[in-house]
Amino acid sequence: MTNFTIPMLIGRTSRRLAKQFALEQPNRQKAEQVYFNTLAVCVVNDYLEWMGIATELSAAESWNAIARLGSDIADLPVRGLGRIECRPMRENEPNCHIPPEVWSDRIGYVVVQIQDSLKEATILGFINSIERQQFPLNQLQTIETLLTTLAELHLSGSSSNAIASSIPFVLFSQWLQGSFADSWQSFEAIFGTENLAYNFRNSPREGDGGVERAKLIDLEMQFDTQVVVLLVALTPEPDRIAVRVRLYPPDGETYLPPNLKLALLSPEGDVLQEVRSRRQDNYIQLPRFTGEPGERFSIQVALENATIVETFEI
Q1: Side-chain half-sphere exposure of 88, counting CA atoms within 13 A
Q2: 38, 79, 149, 262: which one has the fewest Cβ atoms less than 10 Å from its Cβ?
Q3: CATH number corresponding to 170-313
Q4: Residue 94: predicted pLDDT
Q5: CA nearest neighbour of 162 among 127, 125, 129, 126
Q6: First-last CA distance in the chain
Q7: Domain boundaries, the chain
Q8: Strand partners, 299
Q9: The pLDDT value given to residue 226
């Protein structure tokens, strides 16, 4: 494989952009992840431009502040064809790590080794699909395989819906019509009927054609994991939708962990509202807010070094 790798220089503009994105992150671990993801995307983008292949870097999820914050993502859209995932590696790492959240909606995966100097990189190769988080480098195909794959997609006129995508978000219009993704469940499904009376004692009421759904959020921290329940309740108003958002402990637990953060984010990733849990809080909630149809916002749940972001359209 060594004879078919591609050495690349990392320009000052790419390093400056990676640093800018990294400084937006809530902790050092996340900042490092975003920094190297950004460098990998820039390297692959430079290579494809060099080969005369049009990309749409500004449309990448990895170029969106909310997506960067909530996901380990390093995608690069190729115009009219779909998205490539650009996964970084440090020098002397034996395997490449590709998180499950990017195992679908991809043309394939390009592995980029970033040198310790941060000024040079090597494109190690390409693989079409992934079924596990770690895979040995000897499974990589040459980067020419990516070029062949793109050429075949172009000739077939494929801009497959399985490849094309934007940031996934929840449509409240579908909720109001009774359509829900499997991950968004009723309180009964999450807590069971035995504990329903306790859990609904302080929950928002649905009434007036409102809708209420909950989702289990798994915060995978560096040395531990914490599950909480995110509740989103809607109430239609004339020309607007009222929204209430709460966090509950999971079934079998009484209190939320202290210093758990629940925040409302603008489409640009700015914090509009924020609350934090104290010791012995049964739940926390954001102040009730309203929005017009078509408006988007995100909800951020964070604890220690773990952050999850859910995006919604009213």
Answers
A1: 25
A2: 79
A3: 2.60.40
A4: 83
A5: 129
A6: 49
A7: 2-156, 170-313
A8: 264, 310
A9: 82
Determine the 3-state secondary structure of 10 from DSSP: coil
Positive or negative CA dihedral for 60, 153, 168, 220?
negative
Average pLDDT over every residue of 237-247: 92
- Of the pLDDT bands very low, low, confident and very high (cuts 50, 70, 90), residue 32 is very high
- CB 216 within 8 Å of CB 197: no
In 10 A of CB 24, how many CB atoms?
13
pLDDT digits (tens, 9 = 90+) for 134-176: 877 888 888 888 888 888 887 766 444 333 333 457 888 889 8
Q: Which two tokens stand for residue 228?
A: 């909480």
How distant, in Å, are the alpha carbons of 57, 71, 291 from that of 259? 36, 21, 28
206 three-class SS = coil
- Going by their DSSP bridges, the two strands 170-171 and 306-313 should be labelled as parallel
CA distance linking residue 217 with residue 269, whole number of Å: 20
Q: Are strands 6-9 and 271-276 parallel, antiparallel or unpaired?
A: unpaired
Rounded CA-CA distance 27/22 in Å is 9
**How many other C-beta atoms lie within 10 A of the C-beta of residue 13?**
9
By CB atoms closer than 10 A (0-12, 13-18, 19+), residue 277 is: buried
Per DSSP, the residues of 262-305 read: EEEE-TTS-EEEEEE--TT-S-EEPPPEEE-TT-EEEEEEEETT
**Exposure string (b/e) for 145-162, b if CB count within 10 Å is 16 or more?**
bbeebbeebeeeebeeee
Here the tokens at position 246 are 């709460």
- Amino acid letter at 5? T
Please report the sign of the dihedral spanned by the C-alpha atoms of residue 284, residue 280, residue 220, residue 200: negative
Band of residue 2 on the pLDDT scale cut at 50, 70, 90: very low
